[in-house]
Amino acid sequence: MLISALVASSQDGSFNLGGRSSGMAGASLTIGDEYSLFNNIGGLGRVENHAAFAAYQNRYGVKEFQVIGAGAIYNHAFGNAGVGFYKFGDDIFSQQRLHLAIGNKIQMVSLALGVDLLQYHVSTVGSHQVLAIQFGGIAEISPQMRFGAHIFNLNQAELSSETGERVPTVMKGGFSYLPSDELIISVEVEKDLEFDEVFKVGLEYQIIDHVFVRTGISTQPFIGAFGVGFHPKDLKFDYAFSNDSRLGNIHELSIAYAIKK
């Protein structure tokens, strides 16, 4: 019971990660890059190379709320496979996620299926593990329009048999408009079955070669975000700053390296 109560206060079933996504206030549902493994596995099939990546979030200047994540993607002609690790918290309370996913792109549609091993740890109680299944996809409706959808915890994994409390089930849907090669405008809605909808709007603009600026907002609570990215050749460096109206500032740094075959 204590574990499920702390889970409810620490996470909402959304594991968005990466400076690109955070700089757009999480409106990254239709973006198919390395961090699709955390944001929408439906984009996994759009990754064209092997890749390794890692990210760090400093939430509200509180050490106990820091987040680290890392992963790798193996690119194959028959589809891509990815593995990722995510940790929130410290030795007193933590939430950890080991994630495996496979995805493929068939013509204009990219689909992926993932399995997550979630562990919740409370120092005075111990650890509890559950399995959650997720599914996602991205469809390129036209060169200027993409649609994405994702559901986390498709199997509605149970946290406690005593209380019947379950891991949050979160559904997302949205689209992106690309009026030019340099500009992406994204709009999406996120729905936890137990809470109100969260609306997100994000924008990314490539100001010069390899340099990007981003901004976005989301609701419930209101979050304003800004980010920059520098992508020289096979490396990607991204930074994001966001302000949660309830709790304070979040800083995030992420890196990704494409390993060409």
In short:
The protein is mainly β and about 260 residues long. The chain has helices at about 1-10, 20-25, 35-40, and strands spanning about 50-60, 65-75, 80-90, 95-105, 110-120, 125-140, 145-150, 170-180, 185-190, 200-210, 210-220, 225-230, 235-245, 250-260. The protein has a 14-stranded antiparallel beta barrel.
Kindly name the structural category.
mainly beta
Rg value: 17 Å
Query: Could you name the CATH homologous superfamily?
Result: monomeric porin ompg
The CATH first-level class comes to Mainly Beta
Task: Record the strand order, biggest sheet.
Answer: 1-2-3-4-5-6-7-8-9-10-11-12-13-14
| Total beta-strand segments | 14
Could you give the order of the helices and strands? Answer: HHHEEEEEEEEEEEEEE
Fraction of helical residues: under 10%
CATH topology-level name: Porin
Question: Could you please describe the fold and organization of this structure?
Answer:
The chain is mostly beta strands and 261 residues long. It has a single domain, classed as Porin (Beta Barrel), CATH 2.40.160. The chain contains 3 helices and 14 strands. A hairpin with a 2-residue loop joins strand 10 and strand 11. It is globular. The N terminus is likely disordered. This is PorV/PorQ family protein. It comes from Ekhidna lutea.
Question: How are the secondary structure elements laid out?
Answer:
Blueprint: H1 2-10, H2 19-23, H3 36-39, E1 50-59, E2 67-76, E3 79-89, E4 93-106, E5 109-122, E6 126-142, E7 145-152, E8 170-180, E9 183-192, E10 198-208, E11 211-218, E12 223-230, E13 235-244, E14 248-259
Antiparallel strand pairs: 1-2, 1-14, 2-3, 3-4, 4-5, 5-6, 6-7, 7-8, 8-9, 9-10, 10-11, 11-12, 12-13, 13-14
